[in-house]
Amino acid sequence: MKNIVETIIVSASQMQQIEEQIFAAGMPVSALMEKAARLCSDRIQDLYPQSAFTSVGILVGPGHNGGDALVVARELYLAGYKVKVFRPFFKLKSLTTNHSNYATSLGINFYDEIEPLQKCQLLIDGLFGFGLTRELPPNIVEVVNSINNWSQPVVSIDLPSGIHTDTGEALGGAIKASHTLCLGLWKQAFFQDVALAYLGKSERVDFGILPHQIWSVLTKPAPVKKMDREIALKLLPLPRPSVTHKYSQGHLLLICGSLRYAGAAILTALGARASGVGMLSVAVPESLKTMMVSQIPEALIIECPENKEGAIASLPFSQTNLNQFQVIACGCGITKDAKSIVEKVLSVECPLILDADALNILSEQDVIEVLAQREFPTVLTPHEGEFKRLFPEIVNDTLDRLTRLQTAAQQSNSIILLKGARTAIANETGLTWLIPESTPALARGGSGDVLTGLMGGLIAQTKDKKLLDIVAGAAFWHARSGILAAKERTELGVDATTLAEYIQLAIIST
Ligand SMILES: NC(=O)C1=CN([C@@H]2O[C@H](COP(=O)(O)OP(=O)(O)OC[C@H]3O[C@@H](n4cnc5c(N)ncnc54)[C@H](OP(=O)(O)O)[C@@H]3O)[C@@H](O)[C@H]2O)[C@@H](O)CC1
Ligand SMILES: Nc1ncnc2c1ncn2[C@@H]1O[C@H](COP(=O)(O)OP(=O)(O)O)[C@@H](O)[C@H]1O
Ligand SMILES: [K+]
Asked: Which cofactors is this protein said to need (predicted)?
């Protein structure tokens, strides 16, 4: 059975409230700390055995993150590691004081300077966890900077100290961990681009939170979730019914390409091909027709009149014809000279995906007002730059990336997929999916075109699932394809054509 606890992502305040429920139900605070920290200590001993990592330095903060670190210090000491503790704070929470006293009584040495720990072969970071709310004090920033210049591995407990649990931002500075053991539930910071350089390899330590404890704090369905392979597989239009025909397997219209960006039309179509969509129509400027037919022989290529700049000048469809598609994806490579066609597709009576230049054209209008008039769903797929152009007022607010995305989705009444190292997808009600893994191999022209085609093809084929979920599923397979291709070909070998070929391989590989 799916462990739904693994898919839920919380903020610091939600984690605190869930923790409070557990304590209120009778779990002693000290027992929960002991349990969580013992699990960390076991994991650390697996990852860094005493035979190879004899000496360990433990960084202890004033709160319960420091308490966890002291339990780890005690356990590692008892297991035979040589342990030194750096504890730069005078005022500690009482449980942390108790663990400090006990560790001292065992014979563990404490220091208020970091230098004695420099030669340790491993560091455990328990300075701050989800209780960090403000900038690190200057003396701690200095310590963190020194440690980041040292070369031994660092395991952070719960979060790399200095990282804000929700925004993922470094508050003045932050530990660059080799490994982070996230306690209990995934926190938002683990999926924020700005935190990636600090997290190292991340894993969740499950200390037995049950779903009903989560539902006593969160609304159902959970507002922010992590997409995974099991969920993404269920979102694919598989198995196909045995009696079907091409038009029952969805008809997607792509509106893409220009003389200048002819390849974008091919790449979008290759992404759509990999989705298995029943019928693919591709509207391109007329001079691209021969090339498209030779590259995508199975697609219906619709030649459109083109303007003097080589962009699509008009669409040879009546509004009724346009409404017959299951979904339309518009924008890849169309250039900003294709204004009139974006205006036309905005009124289609089917789901509409807008990407690339369709977003840039849209951003010259009152985005929120224009999208509010759409009666059918709209999916926007901006990268950061396009997002800023679409929603300058939201970006100017001092909101973090996730909140900006959720605000924009709500105000524009659309599904927004915000591209990045960690792509995030939100709808108008605030429901959000985060894509947990990707690869910088995708930071390459054309990757986004493949995503748009794939997404269009998946939406076209699926009748019984939520649009938000299918969009997130497409983003998941796109990232997985990049990861698999990079593994087999290095990060330099993932051009967009290759990426499209890896989509099917990613789906069948376990
Ligand atoms: N999830 C769970 O269920 C479990 C959670 N557990 C663990 O508890 C951790 C959360 O513990 P926590 O609430 O005590 O907060 P933590 O992160 O240790 O730091 C807060 C302390 O630092 C202080 N402080 C804050 N900012 C500061 C600054 N800039 N500069 C200086 N001081 C600053 C703040 O004091 P303040 O001055 O704000 O009163 C407070 O004393 C969590 O991450 C996990 O490791 C496990 O034990 C069991 C299961
Ligand atoms: N550093 C990165 N790590 C992971 N994925 C990335 C990274 N940079 C970009 N991507 C992904 O690559 C794709 C790039 O899309 P986009 O910016 O639209 O490019 P293009 O328009 O050239 O196709 C997006 O899906 C994005 O999430
Ligand atoms: K920490």
From this structure: K(+); Mg(2+)
Q: How many whole angstroms separate alpha carbon 215 and alpha carbon 222?
A: 8
123: nearest Cα among 94, 161, 89: 161
- Ligand whose nearest atom lies closest to the CA of 144: 3
Helices 467-489 and 447-461: angle between axes, nearest 10 degrees: 140
Domain that holds residue 143: 2-221
Round to whole Å and give the CA distance between 12 and 490: 37
> Do 18 and 135 share a domain, yes or no?
yes
Shared-domain flag, residues 7 and 136: yes
Count of structural domains within the chain: 2
Ligand 2 geometric centre to CA of 418 (Å): 10
What pLDDT shows up at residue 2?
60
Indicate which ligand has the atom closest to the C-alpha of 40: 1
Residue 144 shares a structural domain with residue 286: no
Q: How far is the CA of 125 from the centre of ligand 3 (A)?
A: 5
Q: What is the model's pLDDT at position 321? A: 92
The pTM assigned to this predicted structure is 0.96
265 and 118 in a single domain? The answer is no
Q: What is the pLDDT of residues 31-70, one digit of tens each?
A: 999 999 999 999 999 999 999 999 999 999 999 999 999 9
